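Internal QA ticket QA-208
Title: Verify multi-chain structure generation after dependency bump
Assignee: T.L.

Test input:
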Amino acid sequence: DAGVTQSPTHLIKTRGQQVTLRCSPISGHKSVSWYQQVLGQGPQFIFQYYEKEERGRGNFPDRFSARQFPNYSSELNVNALLLGDSALYLCASSSGLVWKVQETQYFGPGTRLLVL
Amino acid sequence: DAKTTQPTSMDCAEGRAANLPCNHSTISGNEYVYWYRQIHSQGPQYIIHGLKNNETNEMASLIITEDRKSSTLILPHATLRDTAVYYCIASSNAGGTSYGKLTFGQGTILTVHP
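Actual output:
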């Protein structure tokens, strides 16, 4: 079975631009979480979506937004890019079979964003 | 989520067991201990998780102390491909605003030598 897929793999943008990153969860998984990993640090939680609704949010500014589609895929949008947004953006999916039960999250390969 | 503390780095000889410790002294009763690893520039890979009892799967074993304040991840026969950053995470299943959130620390850089 295919794992979590993300696109694009790499992306270069300039300050002030907007970017959209895409994630397809493991088939049958209903929950998607997004993480940001800057160089040298562990991943930091941004959002979690379940059944197309935001269910959790980390300490990130409103420039970061996301949505989940009926097929459970998800997009992460970042507006007004800053140099500090350069990072590896990771998507993770979990089955979401039982809401509010911590489930194992499986990560995709990530999208590496460079902001110049 | 409870804070976890791991050594910054560890070395292991190929073919030997790698024992990676983790302290989580403030863990609450409903928090699971998860282990992930991340090979350079790839997404984190799930290894194993547990609540109270020791767990084993095809990748590793997880030993949790009786008071649950610490745990050890054991890779029984380390190979060069096990060289990675290993993250120990205490995560609640209680839901709420922290649902879906894994709090990663700095992890342990495990280097397996030939």
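Spot checks passed. Residues 11 and 111 of chain B are 5 Å apart (CA to CA).
Status: verified.
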